[in-house]
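Sequence in, structure out. First:
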Amino acid sequence: MKINKGVFFVLLGAGCFGFTPVFAKLGFGHGYSLGQINLVQMVISFLLLWSIAFLKGDGIKGLTKKNIIPIMITGCFIGLTSIFYYGAMQYLPASLAIILMFQFVWIGILFEWVFNKIKPAPITIFSIVLILVGVFFASNILNGDMQGLPIKGFVWAYYLLLLMLPLSFSAEKSPLMSIH
């Protein structure tokens, strides 16, 4: 039963994450700014998450003075991720922005190998190869669709990638989270 619940929440999260580019592109098309779109997303997320927390009765259970700073830092990175992701979508197609965003997966594994000395398992390396092959085909490089895209979009996506890297480390081993 727990596996089905976990699968449900993963699918729900993926579905919600998949809808955000649609709303962002629609918002940009109707003249809303990057800040306005992000503000609306943050307010809706704030209300939904705190409503769920209080309905479950959890509230702020488990929040201590020791873990509040790492939680706030993580929240800042997640918030900045939305800003840079939507910033990239202002200039790039949403499909390319998401491809660029998810490069943090294999780069995070590479960083973990270099900085934490955790060598990836063969299945992880195979997964990275699959990711890169998928990125190659999904980006449509062979047809030359990359030409003429504004460099601003790639700069936003690059900042997004830099922000995602600290989140790809585990909280216990992340250089960012070891701040006391």
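Second:
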Amino acid sequence: MVYIIAALMASLSFLLNRLFLRYIGPVTVISLGPVAEEAAKTLLAYYLGAELIAVHVIFGAIEAVYDWYQEGGGLAAPALSLAGHSLFGVATAGILAMTGTVWLGLAAGIVLHLVYNVAVVRLLAERAGKNSRKRDNP
């Protein structure tokens, strides 16, 4: 069941993220996208009784394969996807275990995912800025 939930939520997240990007724009990467992904993974897994961390890790692995394909075989993005989603799952499950409420666990996963995405976007923007300065000022 874990694999089915992860695959379904990866598919749903892919479709939602494409819609968000088309109709809202790139800001969804640091706003609505992480909220939708975490809610989909966590709530379905929780209410169907699946292992939360396993769903997050498998979701991350599916996203990693997609990133690997998009990057043309690069390993940085896939590794970050797997590590990030695993971390979000551990945080979600940990807060759930400590508090007994899925909603606080979900909130923790969402906040962590948002912070993570903002950090990655800033890192990529900084790197792109440095590359353009090198290119423009040899």
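Remark: The first helix runs from residue 2 to 23.
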